[in-house]
Amino acid sequence: MTQAHYPFLDKKRIIAEAGFNRWLVPPAALAIHLCIGMAYGFSVFWLPLSKAIGIKESIACPADVGFFQELFITTCDWKISTLGWMYTLFFVFLGSSAAVWGGWLEHVGPRKAGVVSAFCWCGGMLLSALGIYLHQFWIMLLGSGVIGGMGLGLGYISPVSTLIKWFPDRRGMATGMAIMGFGGGAMIGSPLATELMKLFANTADVGVMPTFIVMAAVYFVFMMTGALSYRIPPENWQPAGWTPTSNPKVKRMITEHHIHAKNVFKIKQFWLLWGVLCMNVSAGIGVIGMSSPMLQEVFGGQLLGITKTYSELDKTQLAAIAGIAAGFTALLSLFNIGGRFVWASLSDKLGRKLTFIVFFVIGGLLYLSIPESAASGNKLLFVGAFCLILSMYGGGFATIPAYLADLFGTLNVGAIHGRLLTAWATAGILGPVIVNYMREYQLSLGLPREQIYNQTMMILAGMLMVGLVCNLLVRPVADKWFMKEEELLAERIPGDTKIPLATMEALPVQHKAVNIIVAVLAWAIVIIPLSWGIYKTVLNVGKFFS
Question: Is residue 7 a part of any domain in this protein?
């Protein structure tokens, strides 16, 4: 049976044919990740939505209206703290849906998973638009929070296994390219949403509902284009002329066998990597959420060149340093994204274990250095430390899929990665809770605002040390866990070894030229909007340096 006879979304339909250019797969992954990455930028909607009824000023709900009543009430505006629950649900459902449906994804292939992701993410935005129109917050939670969160999980892991199989020679770089897109999604989506809200806003509407509709339509086109562009290599394919690493330390940690996803919870290496990811993300995500107030409270008037603490500033001065802090947050986002690609690519040379050792040791030292740089008023060291920390936070996300493939094999790495993302869901609660509650506790003790983060930095450094211990304990997986020949045969796609895949070097010159042109166009489709987003972010960074 030929590929043409299989259903359009069937995994067998997308096995690459002779002459396929593997460099078409990363832009397909980026097309999806740049869209779902807008989850990071949803806070741009909170302030306008908090005035959805009042338009110019929020109409506060009566004091006796609790959270559950706020889900259904139509006569007053939502509080920003209430709206923030949508953000929480994003990452809870991202982790849980990736864990639950990761195995399904491996069996049906990345195309079907990408299509489902597009319908969930964009359909969730449309349902949220209806919730805004009816002023029913429960519909928004169901739409973007639950259904959209499921789309996030499927979209996030859909390209991982595919990219690792296409790039056995550059696993870290390949996953870094895609996961960089998730970090960059807010860079494009936030300024785009801001411009659209300005366009649609009027005296009777804050402009969020039509913005959701337009963005859902644009995202749907991009995500479907990416999903339908996915291809998977035939079994045992490898790039022409490539040989596995000869470095004995690195090679010892890379298996040629495969582990079934159903057994992964029984293997200690999985739980060690769960701890590695959880600690790395907890430390970083706690800082991300508090980066703006932290800079303002630590340096206060120093940001304006005056010798006043944060508490001594007037409203005009507070507004001025808030603008500077926004530039600082934008700068951190650039390092977060750049770190995903740079560190993951470096891990191909260093090995994943050594890369995470670097993250934890240098990250821990940087956290410990922050109280001193804050006390001395050294803004350069303070900002530099956080930029490096955020680069390693992003690098951890991008490096962990390759680490999983090294230890557990490539066959079920998407499903295993989905299960590991429960560590992210846990960290999304743990990190912010530690930072926020420690801040409140320090304030309750009467400490000056410029000192309230000192103990927190030590706690975060301690968390990285826990991650370091977990990483140091990682060893190659015992042979008893690897799949037997009959299990591998059961997982194999019928006919997937019968389709030869010629390399670019083996193609006629004219076919090579067409392949290269198509690849350039595919990359342009994702690089142009990403470049626009980076440009907008750099403009924001300028506020900090000015």
Answer: no
Beta bridge partners of 15: 232
Rounded mean pLDDT of the chain? 87
The label of the residue with tokens 């609790």 reads 66
pLDDT digits (tens, 9 = 90+) for 415-429: 999 999 999 888 878
| Residue 306 reports pLDDT greater than 80 | yes
On whether both 288 and 426 belong to a single domain, the answer is: yes
- CB-based contacts of 369-376 (< 8 A; 24+ apart in sequence): 370/453, 370/457, 371/451, 371/453, 371/454, 371/457, 371/458, 374/298, 374/299, 374/450, 374/451, 374/453, 374/454, 375/450, 375/451
Angle CA 105–107–108, to nearest 5: 70
Last residue of a domain, one of 457, 479, 501: 479
Which of 464, 479, 494 is the last residue in one of the domains? 479
- pLDDT value of residue 339: 94
Rounded to whole angstroms, how far apart are CA atoms 159 and 64? 47
Residues 441 and 526 in one domain: no
Specify the CATH number for the domain of residue 532: 1.20.1250.20
pLDDT of residue 293: 76
Co-location of 324 and 444 in the same domain? yes
Domain span including residue 302: 272-479
- Residues 287, 212 within the same domain: no
CA distance 193 to 206: 12
SS3 at position 259: strand
Residues in the chain: 546
CA angle (436 as vertex; 431, 437 as ends), nearest 5:
105
Residues 445-478: tens digit of each pLDDT: 888 877 788 888 899 999 999 999 999 999 999 9
